[in-house]
Amino acid sequence: MATANQRGPRAQHERQTPAAPRSDDLQTVAVQLRRMNGEINRLVQGFAGSHGLHATDVQALAAILDSPGPMTPKRLGEHLGLTSGAVTACVDRLERAGHVRRVRESADRRVVHLHYAPDARESARLYFRPLAEAAAAARGRFGADELATVARFLTAVNEELRAARTTDR
Questions:
Q1: How many degrees, rounded to 5, is the angle at CA 82 between CA 118 and CA 54?
Q2: What is the pTM of this model?
Q3: Strand pairing of 113-116 and 100-103?
Q4: Could you give the dihedral angle defined by the CA atoms of residues 13, 16, 155 and 132, in that order, rounded to the nearest 10 degrees?
Q5: Tally of CB atoms within 10 A around 77
Q6: How many Å is the Cα radius of gyration of the chain?
Q7: 42-87 per-position pLDDT tens digit
Q8: Would you say the C-alpha torsion 153, 42, 161, 61 has a positive or negative sign?
Q9: Residues 6 or more apart whose Cβ sits within 8 Å of residue 60
Q10: Across all residues in the chain, what is the average pLDDT?
């Protein structure tokens, strides 16, 4: 019988992966969410540091990227919980670093929309490729129904966190 080393790196990883948590083990889920958050934070801090940005700036970039419509500084501040002055400083840094553009697109010239610069998007895509590859590899271990459940769970957690944040203000 072949050893994990002889079967390859994936087999080594499978050997080292702890048994799947029970579906009702909230403590295990909480620990894994914190670990994932820590790994993502390390990537975010590295990206921020290598581009002369703050971690909040990277959160702003994600908010601009994920926004279903044009992002305004006001909406960005609401999303991040920042004052208008802090948003201005953040957008100034992002603009200087070439990550975003301010565009006055509205009939009301006072309205500014924030756009993720195409070249900067590619730079971020390259930097965060390990995260995308890890997610793709992990996704391959699950069926469509399982992934739908995971997506529903993560969506529900985010909704609960958003509601808690809103009521705390």
A1: 55
A2: 0.73
A3: antiparallel
A4: -30
A5: 19
A6: 20
A7: 999 999 999 999 999 999 999 999 999 889 999 999 999 999 999 9
A8: negative
A9: 76, 80, 90, 91, 94
A10: 85
The residue assigned the tokens 């004052």 is 83
| The one-letter amino acid at 156 | A
Residue with tokens 């992966």: 17
Alpha-carbon distance of 126 to 147, in angstroms, equals 25
What distance, in Å, lies between the first and last C-alpha atoms of the chain? 60
Mapping DSSP onto H, E and C, the string for the chain reads CCCHHHHCHHHHHHHHCCCCCCCCCHHHHHHHHHHHHHHHHHHHHHHHHHCCCCHHHHHHHHHHHHCCCCECHHHHHHHHCCCHHHHHHHHHHHHHCCCEEEECCCCCCCCCEEEECHHHHHHHHHHCHHHHHHHHHHHCCCCHHHHHHHHHHHHHHHHHHHHHHHHHC
